## 1
Amino acid sequence: MPIDLTYTPEVASLIERTRAFTREVVLPIEDRHGGDIAAAGGDDVRIELQAAAKAAGVFAPHAPVELGGQGLNMSDRAPVFEEAGYSLFGPLALNIAAPDEGNVHMLAHIASPDQKQRFLEPLAHGDVRSAFAMTEPAPGAGSDPAALSTRAVPAPGGWRINGQKWFITGADGAGFFIIMARTSGEPGLRGGATMFLAPTDTPGIRVGRHIGTLDKSMIGGHCEVSFDDVFVPDSAVLGEVDRGFEYAQVRLGPARMTHVMRWLGAARRAHDVAVAHVAQRQGFGATLGDLGMIQKMVADNEIDIAATRALLVRACWELDQGDPASNSTAIAKTYGAEAIFRIVDRSVQMCGGLGVSEDLPLARLSREVRPFRVYDGPSEVHRWAIAKRVVGAAKRAAREAAE
Ligand SMILES: Cc1cc2nc3c(=O)[nH]c(=O)nc-3n(C[C@H](O)[C@H](O)[C@H](O)COP(=O)(O)OP(=O)(O)OC[C@H]3O[C@@H](n4cnc5c(N)ncnc54)[C@H](O)[C@@H]3O)c2cc1C
């Protein structure tokens, strides 16, 4: 089936409206507060921006139409999310920031009708925020999910959950958690995880320290969270018991791609700022932008932007065909996270002292994009998985040839 690169008039209009909304309404607020969401007012500014996005008709492009969203598939999300990502606060304004956007996607696919009503609807409307609690301090789950140590054991009418998580984005102020817990097997074994939905006020859930990190634009911090004998009823099980790792893939493949989309918008802003600078700044009898080594950085940024978009197109197309797209999302995520960092870093370099100053947004953009090479799977883990598939196929072919 050919990949169609044209957008319907409705999607084209949404891209344009998102572009205007992000630049005219959102960007000035980001710039006023140096991209620090807590300094900008946290949930107060989120609510204000989301009301403005609703009024502008650009809210929740990813959410199902019956929940007030625009029901875009992955391919159509790409240009819209990129436009929103042009401001660090744009995704929050449209309700497509992590982790809520990925959680909407997963709940729309897996949640029961009751769970959809209780958790998905308010999330899609922006009435509550959510958190996805997977990562644990050592020796628990990190790059290797099979190390999952948080346990859920059967109790009359439900389950009791015990464990420690950390780096849980948005935990402070979230209305509910999606908790990944081991329901069978031992840490180090792949099978036996289950996802549970639990309102934050469930007894035993404690949101602790905000871990100080490079980035400042994600609402609700990256927190330590403990689950201390938390009772959840059977109705809290998301999907089926012991299928948690499988469901995580439903969330993670698309969530990786939407992160690439949003951060590509941020990288484009950095590039635009740098190009505007080098087109004006004079030095050594020339305009900086006419000097070969600056031209190389400008051209390399353009190449990285175009290549990241192209990889997104392929991965999103596969996802839209119902394919898990494990390989193409790993490739697009790895290349995208590294390309985005390179683009921002070159943009800093082109602007000299101003590049590292707070007079331009580049210093903060370089802080914001750096962690993306770690979350949603570190580059090394994706490379390992990509290579394993290729070498595994070659081994199989060699075995078959020998038989
Ligand atoms: C800003 C931020 C937000 C986050 N938000 C969330 C969230 O909302 N929910 C959540 O559950 N988690 C979240 N995380 C956690 C994130 O998913 C993990 O940090 C990530 O999976 C890596 O796990 P780890 O930190 O335990 O690193 P480790 O697993 O200890 O890995 C450390 C490093 O070892 C290397 N490495 C690992 N495996 C391999 C391999 N097979 N081959 C070669 N090298 C390897 C990589 O370089 C990796 O960076 C967030 C993290 C950050 C930084």
Note: The two ends are 35 Å apart (CA to CA).
## 2
Amino acid sequence: MRTLSRIAFASTAVLAMAGSARPQAKPLASPQEVQKIYDRLLPQIDRIPIYDNHSHATFPDDSDMDAQAAPPDESSVLRLRDTNPEFVAAAKALFGYPYDDFQPEHAKWLADKEKAAEKDGGTAYWDGILDKLNIETCLANRVALAPYLDPKRFHWVFFVDSFLFPLNNRDQTGKNPDMGVYIPLQEKVLHRYMQQENVSALPADLAGYESFVRQTVADNQKKGGVAVKFEAAYFRSLYFSDPPRDKAEAIYAKYHAGGVPSNEDYRTFQDYIFRVLIDQAGKLNLSVHFHSAVGIGDYFSLRNGHPLNLENVLRDPRYAKTKFVLIHGGYPYTLDMIWLTAAKNVYTDSSLMGYYVYPSELKNILKQWISLYPERMMFGSDAFPFNDAVGAEETFWLAVRSARTAVAAALAELVAEGAFTDEKALELARMYLHDNAARLYGEIK
Ligand SMILES: [Zn+2]
């Protein structure tokens, strides 16, 4: 009954609005009209300073750029291959690159420039890249912040998956060749955290392990961390159950000093520690980032990485004050994903998709998101060095140019269809490119 009367009320409201001056939005607009609006929106959108929610700003030989490495047999999407002429355009725009291809002897020109900047050691080089792209602030998702990144411009997002792997990982590592690369790197990060906290061996009981986990997260925040990041989708399902503490305690007691836990026991233990991490992040007001999209490698499970797996966590009232960010827009499940952001503490970004697909397709995705929850969507570059020629600099450029043109096109269509005015369109563009992230990380109220 209650639902029925709400519907009745809603239709009265629609009838009351029908007489207002602006006509109903229409499904088709002329291409000439869309082009005209695009041409006047784009220069204004280009002037909006960007807040980049996700990047791996780095020199290519810095192993702290990520907590994992490229899997052994990666097959790259078309747009990210070094044959993509857009990367030459990027190098020309950023550095005045004098060649039209990345022949090894030409690519050396770029590599030498980068090596000189790295040797110089200052922060001017990466600040300069941000300036050229009109990026004001940029999150850097790395194992540790680098001395060559200016902490005023680059804020640290640190990895926490390693806390899920303190036990004997023989069976985890053996699951497939990709895990054979990934898991030893997680063990390395865990040891690094143990060194940081002056912990020489795993604590004797779960209480000790939990306090080590909580303390490391708190200390990383003191070092400048603004968010924690889970790459868990690469290793396991994003579905986390809610096991009782005594179960996790028994598993830890049995295996912390040796022995190989069964898959089921390991998963139960991880599900529990995951919740300790979420709880601690919430208490410290650190946002929680999830890789929630396709991933690289030959064994990445689309089913395990599907963002809907997180629904029970995102909608858990215990975490209502914790801010969650679904990195990479859940791509390719972007429409399922956007409905998760109906919850006020759930956000997303367009990182990775911005260079996986061309702007014409990114436009369609952004148009859908803008029409649904424009307060929760953010720009992200996922800038990353892909090979000798294509560095994080060029992927920054590609992601920024794609996002600015795609959002201008999405908004131009919506304005032409009669959804809203130019003014509103520019406000929505500012929210996407800057304000939503600045507000999430407490830089604007
Ligand atoms: Zn990334």
Note: Residues 1-19 have pLDDT under 50 and may be disordered.
## 3
Amino acid sequence: MTAPRCTLVPTHERPDLDEQVETLFSEHWPEFIFHDLGVKPYRERRAEYFADLDFWGLDADGRLVGGCYGVPIRWDGTVEDLPGGYTDALRRSVEEHEAGIAPDTLVVMGAMVRTDEQGRGWAGDLLLGLRAKAVACGLEKVIAPVRPTLKSRYPLTPIEVFAAWTRDDGALLDPWLRTHARLGATVLAPAPRSQTMTGTVAEWEAWTGLALPASGEYVIPDGLALLHVDRGADRGVYHDPNVWMRHL
Ligand SMILES: CC(C)(COP(=O)(O)OP(=O)(O)OC[C@H]1O[C@@H](n2cnc3c(N)ncnc32)[C@H](O)[C@@H]1OP(=O)(O)O)[C@@H](O)C(=O)NCCC(=O)NCCS
């Protein structure tokens, strides 16, 4: 395994970098990602309780190349005891922390690489760095609800089918799943409802840039699955699917 080329620093130690973030990373996420109602009640407490698991990645010259963060939970190592996905891991980490339950597992919640540095292997460095931080904190297990970036091209395909697709060389088809796998992570289970976004029809039209004139299912830009629209109830529901992988 090659030594990481980037250094992780807790984001709270470098507030001066916050300004760069919007220009370097802002285009990464579709708007609907920010409308998971299950995240809101826990977001601020997550940032407060687990600030030391929230990092910027800097290159050898101290330049910002990416970011990553995780949350700690107690997990017994079985598929049955996995959180339902991203949002459930967030909830569980905060509630367990407040209940005084000692964690033993890091859940990698996200990683991003600045747009002009993608495809150069920084993501692997970030994950290795985060793994090392977990071990240093006494978290012996490391898991991740991985959001497969290529899945948006296959929104009709069930996540459990997509997660198993491989290339001719045997490597996983999805580049982000593959990056995790290259670091030794294995697929544990699909998380078909890792996040749930709910909104009115007008909100979904604004978030997706699409007219949604009838009830039914829609392929939406950057959606990994279909949007379900019920015009009678004035409601659209989307479940973002992820894949649970285990690093350590
Ligand atoms: C996903 C992400 C973190 C990968 O970072 P990265 O440093 O570019 O990753 P790597 O350089 O290690 O590349 C990983 C693989 O993805 C491929 N890849 C990288 N950027 C790509 C892009 N824009 N489009 C398609 N494939 C890409 C690489 O070719 C590589 O595949 P390989 O196995 O054939 O070598 C980065 O693209 C990103 O920040 N995306 C937006 C945020 C996001 O989706 N995060 C993941 C969910 S939390």
Note: The pocket of coenzyme A is lined by residues 28, 110-113, 118-124, 147, 149, 175-176, 178-179 (CB under 6 Å).
